[in-house]
Structure formats: structure tokens, C-alpha cells
Amino acid sequence: MIRWTRRALIATLLAESLATAVIGWAAIPQRVEAPPRPCGTQSDMLVRSDPTLAPIRPADCGTVTQTPPEFTWPPLDGTHRYVVSLAHPDGHEESRDTPENWLVWDKPLPPGEYRWRVQVKGGEKGDVRRFRISADAVAFLVPGDDDALARAKRLPHPRTWADDESSPVEALKKERARGFAALLEEVEGKMHVQVQPEPRAESQNENYEDAIDEQKRTLNSALAWAVTKQRRYGEEAARRLTAQARWSTTGPISYKNNDTASRAVAWTLALGYDWTRDYLDAEQRAVVLAAIRARMHDMVEQIIARSDISRYPYDSHGNMTLTISAAISALMVGDIAEADEWFRRTVRTAVVWTSPWGGADGGFANGTMQGQWDTGANLLAWYVLRNAAGVDMARKDWVRNHARYLAYFVPPGAPAGLFGDEQEQRAQELRSRVGKGLAAFSPTPIATWYARQLSGEDTSRLELLLAPRMRPANDKLPAGTPNDAVFPSIGWAAMHSDLADPKRASVYFKSSPYGSYNHSHADQNSFVIDYKGERLAIQSGYYDDYGTPHWREWYKQTRSANAITFDGGHGQGIDGKQYAGEITRFESDDRHALAVGHAEKAYGGALTRAERTIAFERPNVVVVRDVLASETPHTWEWNIHALDKMKRYSDRKVAIVKGDAAMCVEMLEGPDVAFSQTDQFTVPPGRSSMEKRHPNQWHGVFATREKTPTAQFVARMTLGSDCSS
Question: How far apart are CA 548 and CA 543, in angstroms?
């Protein structure tokens, strides 16, 4: 490990700036030895130009911590059968064939080095790729469809939870009694409330919220019946279930017109049926099952047959629908004839594409807020799949490592989220509910620590009431947990003064292979800095809805982030996975952390060099070095954003102050610049339910006074200083 002093750190970055100016943009020397042969350099049929096609997994030369790993690749056009050949560490080979562009291997694989290739059956062969299964890899064996189906059909309803001492129902009578009592009180208080009329508004959001409110009332009453067997709860659940079942499957909340609302109705009906089947009479069952059948038909056809989510897995709505459809299938086999086919088409597919937004490290590239929403929605489905289908998603590497991602990027005390839509929201209740539900389902040491630091969750929510029972655990951060982490699969890095301290200094950096696709923004090589529970260097703007003028013209743009723009705010391409970045170097020791990002692709060819190095010296100094080049001279802009107006000391020095947190920003090296700031957006946020949370923010720019084809900046940010001394 390299140990720097503060002066040496800054001197090193300044020296590297001068060196690159002399030798012509030479790359920073890497401290990782080159592999014995180039990794990821194949040029076969699997290498495709469309970045939204299914990825190649396992990644060439990668290390996996799950055995067996899932194999995925971009499909060829047309209908094919593929043969996957696997060479084991001892040299023997096996092969499997499949009509899909993915394969779930049917037995655990021992640790060691493997080689694999894909061939079109009777046709072209792909190149050989390599991966390693680590010695501590966790076994995650997905049962075959026949075995999983047989298991589900053997189970009586309710199938959502186990009928033994591990059942969460027992927890509702003991350690979760307070939350369950709150649920019962809610049910009692809503018994006089008329069943929600079928939503018919033209606004999809309004329909969705109306549908969700009724679904909460329905499922609460259904669970009340399942646990207490009190007739009035069964009557209330049946009344609401049958009313929702009669909502039109072709109207405003059909899957075609409002996919999320229709999915939520189908999920509510399936869970409610599972929990109240012993109360419903034959006519009521028939009404509910008919509605589930109609909505599931549309969901499965859309995500499997027509949109082909295995070909294009980066679909936030479709991916969630896939997981929910798999869980509904597991609940409905034996009750709906078509459910067997749904099960075969969705369960193993859902395992493979659990989260296409990150890899085995547990990362989620689509933003922390979207990640928490998705995980919160998935938890109940994972409970169902574990019990009803025997698919223990807690052992899948992404699920097992996801709490680590949350611990580093929305740690206890963090004042907001990061890098994507709704990044400005703190969402304390959601964060706590998801953190605790995930830790109960997949209780790793860091997940358990994280959950025990959180508070403010609604204990009456089903994700918590029905979670597996947690074992007693230590409240302290596991010994040896580093303060810094990089998640290569998503290109995010986190550097903290002390991860265990809620008043920590936190530096976040992003240069992502997911680019600005979907809920991600055009913010490659950008950073965010929090200190003492306050937002200092912020990602600016507000999520007033997907695709609004503010979202497109400010919130999504590079100029809204702490990143490089040129010529009056021009930046990276928006809404494209091809506008990507990459973290090419990451180092960390007990005093320092450093990350290097390259974002040339993000600028769509406008820049020939877009390199940013960000270094953090604990506890309070951040140094940022940018090396920029273009074939065309530009005015270069170093952007910085804050909640309140920055205090300007000179064109090279400003202070950001929020509460008792402060940061001095000083341009140490670089071209002659002029500093300016404004509290105006290019397009203001639209009117919405969040309107009262739309105060102005401040946007500062260090802009070069002359146009040049190259530029280098070195800036120092000192936390705890307002630049006055």
C-alpha cells in the first residue's frame, strides 16, 4: 500500500499534471500487474455494438462468489439453440444446450479457474473466455422446473411463508407484535371505508396511487385473517379482493395502459388469495382467479414473448414485473391451469435477471433511490420464491452483496441518495424498511450492522412483518471493514472518513459503464460530498417526474452535476448506455483513497481525453485533478453545486456552508478562470406533489477565460473550512 502525506499527495497530482503536459497525455501508471493475456479482447459473435443487449456473464477474467454462476450472452437474431461448453480446473469438459441466451448450470462447481465458450448448435463458435470461482463462493443451486413445480403444488395455502417454527407468523405474536398491532388497528379503522372505485383518471400516476392505497387496505385485512382467523377480517379481505378482481383488465389500469398499476393489482390478488383461500367461497375464488389469469396473461406475454426481456434486460418496469410474475406463478400453480406454463417461463428467467443493474458485487447503477424501491418491492416476492419454489434468492451473489452497496452509498446518517432519479430524497422510512427487510432475508455481517443503525421504518409494512426472523447480532461494524469501496460492475466508488460515524465526511465518485441510461444521469466522472450529515457538493435539480422538461434539460444533464462541461454547459450524451465511463484505478489504505475515471465515451466523441482523479485524505481533504483534451478548442467549465449561495473569495476560491458543515474549494492549478454562480435552472421543476420541496439551488462554474484544445485542473476541497483562514 502507498502511504501519502497531504503535501506529497497534492505534489504527486501536480507532478502528474506537468508530466502529462510534457510527454503527451500519457496514462497514469497502473499499480496492478497486467494479466498473462489480454482480458475482454474477444471479437466473436457475442461482441455486439448495441450496449442494451444482454451482457456476457461471467465477465472474462472475472472472479465469481456464487457457484454455479449464471451464464448469459447477447442473443443472435432469429431462433437458435446454443451449446455452452465448460472446461473445469482439472481439464475435463462438460456442455449443456439451451434455446435461451442464458443458462443456469445444474450443479455446484468447485473453486478454481474455468474456461467457457458459446456455440450456435450446428453453427458458429464463440471465443474462449475465462473466469474463476473463489474459494469462499456460496452455493446457489436453482432447482429444476419439475422439482420446483412439484414442491409448490405440494404446499397448502398460504405458501408465502413456512409452516414451522421459522414462520414469521410466530414473530407477529412476539417480537413483531407491536407492528402487527398497528396493522390490525389500521384494518379496524378502514372497515367503514368504501371499497376504492375502479380508477379511471387519465393520469397514470393518479391511477397508480389510488390502486396502491386500496391494495394496502386489502392485503392488511388478508393478513389479519391469516393470522387471527377472526371472521370480520376475512369478510373485509373478501370484500376488497372481489371488488378489485372486478376492475377492468382492458381499461385505464390494464397492463397495456398502466403496467405498474396492473401488476400491483395482480400481485395483491395473488397474495390475498394465498392468505384467504380458506375463507373465500367458491364463487369468490373464481372471481379472483379469473382476474389473476387475465392480468398475468398480459404480463407474461409482454415481458417474455413480445419484449423479450432476456434479449434487452435493462427494463426497470419489465424486470420488476418478471420477478413478481414468477412469485405469482408459484402461488397459483394447482389453482390456475396456465400457471404451470407461467412458472416455467418466469422463475428461472427471474433468477438470471434478478437485477441487470449491477453485477456480483451487489451494485445498482440506476441510482440509490430506484434501487431501494426495487428491493423493497422484491422482498415479498423473494419470500414467496424461497418457500413456495425452493429458490433461495438470499444465496444469489447480487442479493447477498446488495446490503454492502447500500451501506457504502446510503450509509446511516446520509442526508440524501446518489446518482440517479430522486437522488435528492433522504427517504428515511424507505431506507430503514428496506435495510432491515434485506438484512433479515440475507443476514450478512455488514447487512446486519447496517440494519441496526437505521430507524424510522413503518413496522406495520408487510416486507418487515413477513421477513424471516433475525438472529441476535452485534451492533458494531464488522472488524476489518474498510472505509472505502469500489463497485466495478457499476463504476461507483465511496470514500468515508469513518463509515461507522453518522457525522462522517463522505466522498462519492461515479464513472459508470451504464452511462446515462434509464434513471441514470449524464454525470460520469462526477462527485458528491457530504459532511456532518449535510449535503455540501450536491447533484442538483429535482425529480418532478420521468421525462419532464426539467428532467431532460437540467436534472439529467452534465451541467447539473459536479462534472466537466464546455462552451456554456455542453456535456455528455443523455439517456444512453453508450455514453459510458469507467473507473480504471482504485486504491485505499487507512489514511487515503484514490479513484481514476475515464469518461471519453460519455462525451460522444466531443473530447479525446476526459480523465478525472479524485483523492481523499482522511479526515477532511479532497483533491481533484482533471486532464482534458479535444480536437477543437473549448472554454472548459469545472462545475460545483450547493444548496445555498457560495461565498466567493476570488475567481479561484469559494466556500460552501450548510449548517455547521463547511468546505473550502480552491483551484490550485490550471488555466486562468472566472468564477460565476446562479440559483436558476435552465428549466425550472414542474408543478407536482413535491412542489414545496423545490427551493432554489446554487450552481457555480470555474470557466476558463480562453478557448484551448487542452486543459488541466487541480482543485483542493477542505472540509471543515470556510476559506477564512
Answer: 9
